[in-house]
Design a protein that fits this description.
- By secondary structure, this protein is of the alpha+beta class.
- It has two domains: 1-111 and 300-364, P-loop containing nucleotide triphosphate hydrolases (Rossmann fold), CATH 3.40.50.300; 119-298, Glutathione S-transferase Yfyf (Class Pi), Chain A, domain 2 (Up-down Bundle), CATH 1.20.1050.90.
- The chain is 44% helix and 24% strand.
- Helix 4 (127-141) packs across helix 5 (143-168) and helix 5 crosses helix 6 (175-214).
- It starts with a strand and ends with a strand.
């Protein structure tokens, strides 16, 4: 899978921008704040319909403009044109000029692996953040997962709302709550299986890559879920047991919305006992494992984005990323200085220099 080109209209600091990419390596250099990361952010937005920066959606629209557009030709088995439009009415996506009605039907078409300085959140941040990251990664592999997750969250919201109704009106019927509880369990069990399979697929490669990088083995992801080793009958009993607590608190205290994932090295949680170097290497191993899962489960080589990692990782860690990457994978690298990029990586690369929103190709 490769980006052939990219066209931006009123995206961040770019009023109009058109770039043609190298099918192998693309290096985007420029000072911080000049717009280099905006280019790879646009690639990500086209794939996920949201930014990886965690900002409000409308901030990607150029100041004082009503809308923004991101579009590109992408070659996989065939070449398709993808288009993303955002305005005050919301967002719209198109493939080959055909509007896609549901975002969930669009996602998983463009596959991207992103390396960014924020990646350590997967280890160091809250369970909620880890769930969001895993959900985002899983949605690339199977858009059915995203549809199920959306349904689960809708039913969860309805159940929580009705729990509040029961708290203030003890005479309200509990039949509706029973229906919502059963729906929540059915959807949760399906999502649990998807998550368990994804973690299992990643685990097939995680320890192998971590050992290749560090000469240490025994790294794995511990997936903790309320639904582990339980069937529908078990769960119905548990939700009944939690009912009084749920009504009192006005929320559902049990379910896969409490799932968590932890990186474990030699029986120790890397979040609590790992050095920052060990944590960074674990994330690198995780991302490399994802590439393998894409290759073997979807028969796709994803697009790779390295956003400003040369400022954060030492040369050894950067080399560890590229040592195990197939040369056929298209790579986008952002950096403040070309000299920070390994000389070998610069070979056969296309270089784009960004200066205050203007982009020009630069000869190596």
């Amino acid at each position: 899978m490769k980006f052939i080109d990219l066209k931006l209209t009123n995206f961040r600091n770019y009023q109009k921008l058109y770039l043609k990419f190298n099918p192998s390596k693309n290096i985007i250099i420029g000072e911080n704040g000049g717009g280099k990361t905006n280019i790879v952010e646009a690639l990500y937005v086209l794939a996920f319909t949201k930014s990886f920066r965690g900002t409000k959606e409308d901030v990607i629209i150029k100041y004082d403009e009503p809308s923004c557009v991101v579009e590109a030709n992408i070659k996989d088995k065939y070449t398709n044109r993808y288009k993303f439009i955002l305005n005050k009415e919301g967002k719209k996506v198109m493939i080959n000029n055909t509007k896609i009605g549901k975002i969930s039907d669009y996602l998983s078409n463009i596959n991207i692996i992103l390396f960014t300085v924020e990646d350590l959140k997967l280890i160091k941040d809250t369970p909620n953040t880890r769930r969001k990251i895993i959900n985002m990664e899983l949605s690339q592999f199977n858009n059915e997962y995203l549809k199920l997750l959306s349904l689960y969250n809708r039913v969860l919201k309805q159940r929580n709302s009705y729990l509040k109704t029961l708290y203030f009106n003890g005479n309200a019927s509990r039949n509706y709550l029973d229906i919502l509880t059963e729906q929540l369990i059915d959807l949760g069990l399906k999502l649990y299986e998807y998550r368990k399979q994804f973690i299992s697929d990643i685990s097939n490669y995680l320890s192998i890559y971590y050992k290749k990088i560090t000469n240490l083995s025994d790294l794995y992801i511990s997936y903790k879920s309320d639904y582990e080793n339980k069937n529908k009958e078990d769960l119905l009993k548990i939700y009944k047991k939690y009912l009084d607590k749920d009504i009192t608190s006005g929320k559902t205290n049990y379910g896969i919305h409490h799932d968590d994932y932890n990186f474990i090295l030699k029986d120790n949680n890397l979040r609590d006992f790992g050095s920052e170097g060990e944590q960074k290497n674990a994330v690198i191993a995780f991302k490399l494992s994802e590439i393998e899962v894409f290759k073997n489960n979807k028969n796709v080589l994803p697009i790779l984005i390295l956003d400003d990692l040369f400022s954060e990782l030492d040369k050894k860690k950067i080399n560890n990323i590229f040592k195990f990457i197939n040369d056929e994978i298209q790579v986008f690298i952002t950096t403040t200085e070309l000299s920070k990029v390994n000389k070998k990586l610069r070979e056969n690369s296309k270089v784009f220099k960004v200066v205050k929103g203007y982009v020009e190709e630069e000869e190596l």
